[in-house]
Amino acid sequence: MASNTSGDKGLRAIVIGMIVFVLAVTGIFIYLDKKPAQNALTPASISKADGSGLVFNPKAKPQIDIWEDFQCPACRDFEAINNELVKKIITEGRAKVVYHPLTFIGARSTNGINESIIAANASACAMDQGKFIEMHEILYQNQASSENSGRFSTEFMISLGNKIGITSMKFQDCVTGGNYALWTESISSYAAVKNVNSTPTIFVNGKELNRAGGEYSDPAKFEAALAAGGVK
Q1: Among positive and negative, which fits the CA dihedral 191, 90, 217, 152?
Q2: Which of 60, 70, 112, 224 has the maximal Cβ count within 10 Å?
Q3: What pTM did the predictor assign?
Q4: Which residues are 96's β-sheet partners?
């Protein structure tokens, strides 16, 4: 009986040892699988506290958050109406402005290429070159008449960059390599946390603009909403 007990203990020890080994190996593979995502390239001018959004005037208050998709016609309209005021606020340092480029529309692409990711990536590459605002404008000025039409290619992004004075190989490599494609996933994840499910969506000091009340489409009402949020 004693020998059988020893044998059982020995068998249990071997089984436990094998389980521990399998768990350890599994843990290593899980870590390795997740590691690339954790080490994904991110633009230099981001705020992790703001969901890795692209930030202007990081120390300023109050804060304006702009959620947009570069293929979104309503975003193009908002930009056309209100962009000059937003640019002035940025230049004068009157508020912290955080841009969150989303990729909702591109996710439904039928051509197998997410054009919203291509555009968002290019905007971040331009941010590295100090040309985000210019890229932001020219992207909307050249938005296709229909979504996912194939217009927003990497080659087209490079040509737009050239038009606003970005000619460096660093920018071209960033665009063609999709350096910040995984970064756009973190923006989308933060949108889910903030319950942002449409574009454009604008927050002023944490309060969402009133879409039905015309604060997106009426410049006077937009400016009034900014003032109410503390943007002087």
Answers
A1: negative
A2: 70
A3: 0.82
A4: 63
